[in-house]
Amino acid sequence: MSTGPKRLNQPLRIIEAIRGSLRYKLLVLVLFPILLIMPIALGLAIYWGSQFSYEQLFIKVNTDLSVAEDNFHRLQEDYLNTLGRLAESYAFYTALESKSGLVVNAQLSELQQSAGFSYLHLLGVDGKRLFLSYGEAEKRGHPSPSLLVALQGYPRVEIEIFSAEALDEQSPGLAKQVELPLIDTPRARPTVQRIEGRGMMIRALYPVKNSRGQVVAVLDGGVLLNANFKFVDTIRDLVYGPGSLPKGSIGTVTVFLNDVRITTNVPRTPNQRALGTRVSDEVRTQVLDDGEKWIDRAFVVNDWYISAYQPIIDVNGERVGMLYAGFLESPSRNALWQALGVLILLFLALMLFSSILSISGAKSIFKPLEMMMAVVRATREGYTKRIGKISSMDEIGVLANEFDLLLDLLQERNLQVQQWADQLEEKVDERTAELKLKNQKLVTTIQILRETRAQLIAAEKLAALGELTAGVAHEINNPTAVMLGNLDLLVEELGDNATPVKGEIDLIIEQIFRIKDIINNLLQYARPDEITETPSVIDVNEVVQHTLALVRYLRKQKQFEIRIDLNASRPVKINPHELQQVLVNLFVNAVHALDSSAGIISLSTDDWDEKGVVIRIEDNGMGIEEEQIEMIFNPFHTSKRVGEGTGLGLSVSYGLIKKYGGDITVRSDRGQGSLFSVWILQEPDLMEEETALMEQFQPTEQTPDAASSSVGQSKQSA
Q1: I want to staple 657 with a disulfide (CB 3.0 to 4.6 A). Which of 311, 637, 640, 662 is the partner?
Q2: Sign of the dihedral through C-alpha 38, 41, 43, 45
Q3: 3-class DSSP string for 680-710
Q4: How far, in Å, CA of 199 to CA of 320, rounded?
Q5: CA torsion sign, 160 to 165 to 166 to 169?
Q6: Are 601 and 563 in contact (CB under 8 A)?
């Protein structure tokens, strides 16, 4: 059956319903401007607000680029002025007049170090370097228009591009320093080049004149911009100072050689700058090919930035790179959408309020009429029906009130019932709140009881450990003293005959003293106020080698491979016997964690930033359960079977390292092995024993700031 005619008649029915009902007429008249005009106004406001906000962002980034450009040129002038101060100094002029090459070269070297020049030479009027070392081949300054201008007596500072050969001519090793592998970057122009080996140089040339104003030499100084983070960070700090960006945003500045980022503070990863990445082909075409600025939003490395680019012109007037300034878009965009969201909510609230108010106003007109019609129909059909209280004071309201005075009494009784219901609900809410409060107090009390119980258990364990340690120390120290006395007597009796076994005797004596140190350390752990150790400056690599000599016997029990990689170069201050005890404990645990075959234990040392050293012991054994990691440093905690371990090894080791301000961290995957890292400060930050003991129950799984510590490349197997 066709529904076409019904659909065509639907609008006609709506129109007829509006014409035949006072309710619908009033609603259409009231809601039409609210539901149609206000959404249009809201849409226009959102569009204008977003456009205006981004225009302001583009204006800001353009200003930021101008400030960055000014500082870019100002820093170049600073380098030129630095050369000028040297050229016009009396000491330099006197040394040059007397042709004292050693003094001149010393002044040049000192200025190069203090001012940050990548190279600094003194050229003669023929462009050749002066005061070369005896036997050194003749060298000339890098040819450029700036050099010709300087030889005529005019200081110049310009951007110049040096090839790899030109870099090594100025200073051996510069070419290797600037080699930068190119990283594949989405949307970049395709290229077959894999490495950028050229250098972008700020080259400052200052003429040195004699008393007659004649040019007798030229100071030639170059500052390499490749990987010059100090240069680009200085500009960034000047452009994006505190309070210049929304919270959460970061400002960045980049110098490009052609389309490659050679120095930048744009992050590629949280701890790595985006060196070697390239700009998009769209930006390169507009800036490098067409020589125009780029002011727009752009996807930079891994996020959207409000970006501004402009070309860098070299001494020959060619576009050789780009200067970039920009900041993260997301904080500004989030702030914009947050403001628009508030605006939308305000509009919706206003529309809702207006609609409710309008409907309520219209309802006050048509409701009394409809109710009177309903009462008339009910009365006609024999039912009892009343209107109720009408608040309107117009003619219709007065008519309705007079029409139904009998409903006043019913309304009053309904109000009383409602009040009683409200009072009952308030009472229920009060009782519920009291019950919740009591439940919360009960939970808090239970938690306090659990914590107190755990503290009592730990205290009881430590008390028992103190008693046990005191007894063990007494029982072991006496035999070791007898052993040492007899060994001294044995050596004295044997005389020269003891020479073939002198190494074994020394090892026995060393291990007896190590037994005494272990007992003292255990006693210190249980009763820290009875023993005080004095740290000394040691080489951790030697301690590791000595430790390996002590644990050779373990390879008789289980076959495994030991890999050593000792790269630490910084001495640290710590008790060597305590450190050896820690390493032995960790090594033994690593051996116990290995499978029956194909076991590998890696020992490595590295420098830990400027703080100290880190020793890593890694195995490919069974690993540690995730829920056990937080408890492995607690006293008496062990995953071994009864009789195979006391649960004190890791706890004692952790306490020994913590005492010097260091840390022991662990990373483990079940079935993949474990990595224990011992972090040792170069100068110990000795803490109170009670503090170290308390931290022993809450060891951290987070590795200290060792992201920048070097990792050795050479490996050796034992």
Answers
A1: 662
A2: negative
A3: EECCCCCCCHHHHHHHCCCCCCCCCCCCCCC
A4: 11
A5: positive
A6: yes
